[in-house]
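Why does residue order matter? Because the sequence determines the fold. Keep that principle in mind as you read this record.
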Amino acid sequence: MGYLLYFILIILLPIWAQMKVRGAYKKYSRVANTSGVTGAEVARRILDENGLYNVQVEAVGGFLSDHYDPRSKTVRLSQENYYGHSVAGAAVAAHEVGHAIQDAQGYAFLRFRHALVPVANFGSNLSWIFIMIGIFAQLSGMLLLGILFMAAAVLFQVVTLPVEFNASSRAMDQLVASGIIRNEEERRTRKVLNAAALTYVAAAAVAVLELVRLVLIYTGMANNED
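Structure:
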């Protein structure tokens, strides 16, 4: 029964988080910001106000495909947010610019996350091979190796949390300071940013829970070998 509840939790938690972010985004993508600016204009204004004239702003295909590329120093916004005038679009654009500001200022958690990327990719790709071999062949050493690889990927998920929360905090500060959002729009913008943050919280929670479960399996297996 415990395992059933566990698997229901790790399946439903990400789905619930995605529903929250899509619901908030859909609702406030229909609400125009009072400044009448597009997401592209929001990004460009905040970048310029922070002296980041070298960072480009581009439109990209896909739904909520918005991101900041630190390699090319480019804020990429989905077309709906790039061209749209919504509260949601302004929030998303400001959030991605928040990452650009982090990059420019050498924000410690962002630098740490960048350093973890190759290790996390390697770990996530190989961990389950060793884990499955370890579990089915009852080889605790192989399982432990898989857990160590997986721990690197989980650490990446956990470090992502302060990076994303900080970017959202910067986004709110910049939007208010620049006068792009006012009064009631602050509450609406915060709802969009908080909903988006839930997806990262859910992903990190699921990753940590899975890691704990595997550690418990390893502990039981090692005890049996003794």
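The chain has one domain: 2-225.
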